[in-house]
Specification:
Length: 271
């Protein structure tokens, strides 16, 4: 059901890869709620070709951008402003990559070249996007920026590896930049800490299926799926949340504040 929450709004969605992506779902929901959007991803992701399907569905242009390149992001915002005839009202940062995870290297044996690359893509990219947006005055007053995070930023999940560090920095950047962008342009910046979700990135984590089952048992409401996350993100883009900023918002069915559940106790007792 659509509520026209984003009618007349314009935004940029980073990171939609395929139909399993949370960014893909957010783009669909934003479009349903009346927004006009620009889609962007890395040149490598664009060569996979799947984003064209979403672009057609949402009537959205695709502008490639390597988030480790200032020039690419400058070009992205410049072309988006040209396309929309002005600034944007919302931005979704849904970007994460760990070569250490892909290579199966444990946290205590991380390759630092891999770590630096992952940090630049997964965390520093948010700072880069916001810095360039501020310089270009690319986000309108009372705009909203949302970056996707995970509870491993606060708690240890062994196989999440260096992505835990990346998410911790991502949340810190959102808080710090939220202060400056808020005082200068009333732009709000938040992170959403989502339940473990079966995306392309999430599925690359060792033991992911087992952890999804555990999180389901540990969450009073169960795990939040990608569609539900998209619903939540849309509310954060809307004018209904104009005074929410610098927050890390848990969207996880209660997992983050549950010590133990009866289902987990019973499972442990039966083993």
């Amino acid at each position: 059901m659509a509520y026209n929450l984003l009618k007349g709004k314009k935004g940029i969605i980073f990171g939609a890869l395929n139909e399993a992506s949370i960014a893909w779902k957010v783009a669909q929901r934003a479009h349903e709620e009346g927004a006009e959007i620009v889609l962007t991803n890395s040149p490598l992701a664009l060569r996979m070709g799947e984003l064209n399907k979403l672009a057609e569905e949402c009537n959205a242009p695709v502008i490639g951008a390597d988030v480790t390149s200032n020039e690419d992001i400058e070009n992205l915002f410049a072309k988006s402003k040209e396309h929309f005839g002005g600034g944007v009202d919302f931005v979704l940062h849904s970007i994460g990559m760990s070569i250490n995870v892909r290579k199966g290297l444990p946290y205590y044996e991380n390759n630092y070249e891999f770590t630096h690359k992952g940090f630049d893509i997964s965390a520093l990219s948010l700072h880069r996007v916001l810095q360039i947006a501020l310089k270009q005055d690319a986000i309108n007053e009372w705009g909203s920026v949302v970056a996707l995070s995970y509870i491993a930023a606060q708690r240890v999940f062994p196989d999440y590896n260096d992505m835990a560090d990346n998410k911790a920095v991502l949340e810190s950047i959102a808080r710090n930049f939220g202060y400056y962008y808020g005082t200068k342009k009333k732009v709000r910046i938040n992170t959403v800490s989502q339940s473990p979700t079966r995306t392309t990135a999430g599925s690359g984590v060792k033991g992911f299926d087992g952890f999804i089952n555990y999180a389901e048992k540990m969450s009073p409401l169960g795990n939040a799926n990608a569609d539900q996350c998209a619903d939540y993100v849309v509310t954060l883009f809307s004018d209904l949340t104009k005074m929410v900023t610098m927050q890390n918002l848990f969207h996880d069915g209660g997992f983050s504040f549950t010590g133990v559940t009866q289902a987990v106790i019973e499972q442990m007792a039966s083993e």
